Amino acid sequence: MKQFDFELEMQVRDYECDVQGIVNNAVYQNYLEHCRHKFIQIIGLDFNQLHADGIDGVVIRAEIDYKFPLQPGDDFVIQLKVAKRGKLRIVFHQQIVRKSDEKLMLDAKIFTVLIRNGKPISPELFIEKFNENGIVMTEM
After folding, report:
1. What is the CATH number of the domain that holds 18?
2. Report field, pTM of the whole predicted structure over 0.90
């Protein structure tokens, strides 16, 4: 991704790898979620407070292309760019890049919605925070 709204550096921990000595495919979703949560915190939203207010963000679709495997000790960067799709969906385009050679390891699009009492609601609260932080969302 050439331009992104947020990035988070991490390192592969030994226990995240499977018998093949590479990061287990399910662990990548944890990496992506951790990055999204940090991003949301940094722009000034609090998931615990949102939940207390009856609002929850949920993943409704994940498109993940695994390009190359990360291995124990690899340092990597998760890059994130937010977009919108329609009136309700917020899309997080995320990439994982290995720092040592800047190789793209994973490319993902995570589709989310906000819900209140089990029903989708407008993501206006998030969009306002994005705007306050100078983040311009494009339609995907």
Report:
1. 3.10.129.10
2. yes
